[in-house]
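Hi again,

Forgot to attach this to my earlier email, sorry! This is the prediction with zinc ion bound. I've pasted everything inline since the attachment limit keeps bouncing my files.
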Amino acid sequence: MTPNDAYIKLLDEVRTTALLESCSSLLGWDEQTYMPAGGAEHRSRQQSLLAGMVHERATSPRIGELLAAVEGSDVVADPASPASANVREIRRDFDRATKLPRRLVEEESRVSSLAQQAWIEARKKSDFVIFLPWLEQVVALKREEAQAIGYGNGVPYDALLDQFEPGMTTAEVKRLFGPLQEELVKLIGAIATSGKRPDRTILSRNYPVEAQRQFGLNAAKQIGFDFDSGRLDETAHPFCSGIGPGDCRLTTRYNPQHFPGAFFGTLHEAGHGIYDQGLDPAAYGTPLGSAVSLGIHESQSRMWENFVGRSRAFWQHFFPKARQAFPEALTDVSPETFYAAINDVEPSFIRVEADEATYNLHILLRFDIEQQLVAGDLAPRDVPAVWNDTFRRYFNLTPPNDSLGCLQDIHWSFGGIGYFPTYTLGNMNAAQLFTAAQRDLGDLPAAFARGEFQPLKEWLNEKIHRRGKLLRASRLVEEVTGSSLTHHPLMQHLHGKFDELYGL
Ligand code: ZN
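Structure tokens for the complex follow:
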């Protein structure tokens, strides 16, 4: 077999695996939206069959043979070529999948489903002791996983982080988060002592669900989400699932007494969806047709949600429409009052409800604790105390119980250690990319005020979406923006908005 034949066969293999995975995604979407409760057991059998098939394909010796036939050949002579990127990423996935012993994979899957059940009960009763034995097992398994995968520099957390943010290291994240933390704590402190408080109660008036659905749908459409190739449904925990070319599913949840949750949630998921819809359909199932990393994916959702959706210019266009859609809630509200309310900064206990500024401190706290757990420097039983201490230092508040503290997130129960940093990396990427978009496209706020979002969407399509995994995240950001990732654009964005709103 020639190297070129091997390359074509290799792409066939990964495409078929991706097709199989997309069947599982569709079943997952259905499970979260329309499946009757009685279908749970049958669905879990379907999912487990598919997961087994995907794992078998992903670790097949055939992939190893094909990779060996391509690597070092003319096909990958140019390291910057699309073929080289495909081979590099297929090799990475294959190595990760085959390094994990079957026993460990099965044990992780068994423990994570039981740990999630324990976590639900522990959170409900706000009783960390219920979750503790499971957290201990999850951390032990993750430490074992890190050993199996391997890491440089004696930092096992690197191996876990790399799963979600390929190529990123713990040292690099620390270098990025250190100065961010220092400046955020100062900014949030200054806002707290400014004495200014917007009237947030206007967001908790009567916002009928049907009007919210229409309004959110229209906004998602206008920023560029294509509803001929996607849809929006309801779920308890909102997400976006790119099933494949021409089919992307957004979900949200409505509260008739609260406007921001569903609306900004819809913009956020639509941002993820615009990325998925912008991937090259001809490269579907291969690395070149796949998203770069979670940190880049999150940059797209945050950009549309915060940099666009919470901007003054956006509401110059949308506020008159909002008044028409919600006359009871907004007739006596000025655009400025509304703008201040949706941008209120106030320290609170729950990450997913946090504002643009305090959100990142929630992530820095988790990153700190996760690293120590994986390094073996922190025992799981000491997590609540360390959590509350750190929280007090960052926010000047103490969580009254563990449900509002270390038990609030699902991530540790499903083994998602190493996931949290990608949220703040997403915010930093969003800021730096948005700054570059303004440099390239001129006055974006003026376009937003006219209801024009196409230029930004097309810029993102060209610079990010269409290229798939051609470049790793840090190289991509460097190439598109002209410099490597720093905390400065994010802090400039936050100061630009909040210094004015709070008179700092
Ligand atoms: Zn997201």
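Residues 3-149 form one domain. Residues 358 and 493 are 14 Å apart (CA to CA).

That should be everything now.

G.
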